């Protein structure tokens, strides 16, 4: 049914009169009457009972009016949401994320977002997974992207994706064609891994360190760009997710080989927001975009 009819029937029901409805709508009463009669003929039912005092809805008319008002309300809600999106120009979005996300994935999403909303400003901080969680819970960040370990009670994940930690190595490395590797398979090679995933609570330490030979050379660094250059130079093999090496994996210069460690293969990454506070319109659009792009990645 045409949107004009929706307004005509709604106002006629409110006024109890076609003439009064036409006056409110600033159209002729003939136009209102003709439109309603045309829809009655189309539906094959009478919507109005016309009397000398005015009009009353028939049973069919009440059903159609319910549809009209629901449709008009939904349309107004759409208009409000579109207005919010148009007003993103003055928005500021805070994002807390682990470093691998900010290497390539997040810049790609930011580029897409700013094509439509170029004046939106951002604060982006690198954090440890537990710090990402705390920042979102405390309202210091609108959105978090991190491994999903123990969720804070004030935080919820709006998107989840498997993000296994495995071995990153050059395409010409002797182990590059393997379908999977054990900790003992990598014992003779210098291992490049993050400084941040160390300590008694580290899943990597629980899986890898206990099985490594004591003499294995290891390069610990909190710099993912340095780790990437060392791996590309053939100075070691990395212990990371795919996230920080997207371009190299896409081009084929680096390979990802899963490690035979269930705990590392079961890791998941997610998009986090507060469970206590609603997102502002700009942050909601950005959150949806991050979630959508995350789902498209090959992180297995």
UniProtKB/TrEMBL annotation:
Any GO CC annotation of this UniProt entry: cytosol
Residues covered by the HTH lysR-type domain: 1-58
Superkingdom, taxonomy of origin: Bacteria
GO molecular function: DNA binding; DNA-binding transcription factor activity
Keyword field: DNA-binding, Transcription, Transcription regulation
Keyword flag Calcium: no
InterPro entries for the chain: HTH-type_LysR_regulators, LysR_HTH_N, LysR_subst-bd, WH-like_DNA-bd_sf, WH_DNA-bd_sf
Pfam family, one: LysR_substrate
Family affiliation: Belongs to the LysR transcriptional regulatory family.
Protein name: LysR family transcriptional regulator
Species classification: Bacteria, Pseudomonadati, Pseudomonadota, Alphaproteobacteria, Rhodobacterales
């Amino acid at each position: 049914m045409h949107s004009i009819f929706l307004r005509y029937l709604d106002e006629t029901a409110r006024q109890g009169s076609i003439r009064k409805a036409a006056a409110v709508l600033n159209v002729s009463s003939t136009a209102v009457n003709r439109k309603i009669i045309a829809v009655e003929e189309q539906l094959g039912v009478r919507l109005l009972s016309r009397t000398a005092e005015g009009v009353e809805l028939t049973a069919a008319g009440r059903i159609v009016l319910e549809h009209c008002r629901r449709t008009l309300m939904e349309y107004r809600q759409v208009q409000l949401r579109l207005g919010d999106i148009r007003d993103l120009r003055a928005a500021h979005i805070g994002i807390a994320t682990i470093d691998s996300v900010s290497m390539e994935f997040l810049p790609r999403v930011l580029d897409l977002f700013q094509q439509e909303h170029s004046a939106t400003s951002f604060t982006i901080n690198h954090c440890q997974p537990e710090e990402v969680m705390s920042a979102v819970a405390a309202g210091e960040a609108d959105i978090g992207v991190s491994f999903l370990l123990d969720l804070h009670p004030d935080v919820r994940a709006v998107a989840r994706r498997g993000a296994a930690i495995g071995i990153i190595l050059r395409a010409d490395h002797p182990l590059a064609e393997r379908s999977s590797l054990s900790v003992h398979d990598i014992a003779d090679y210098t291992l490049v891994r993050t400084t941040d995933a160390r300590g008694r609570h580290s899943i990597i330490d629980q899986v890898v360190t206990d099985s490594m030979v004591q003499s294995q050379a290891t390069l610990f660094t909190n710099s993912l760009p340095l780790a990437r250059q060392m791996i590309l130079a053939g100075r070691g093999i990395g212990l990371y997710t795919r996230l920080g090496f997207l371009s190299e994996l896409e081009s084929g210069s680096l390979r990802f080989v899963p490690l035979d460690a269930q705990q590392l293969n079961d890791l998941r990454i997610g998009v986090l927001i507060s469970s206590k506070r609603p997102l502002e319109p700009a942050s909601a659009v950005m959150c949806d975009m991050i979630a959508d792009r995350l789902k498209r990645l090959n992180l297995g």
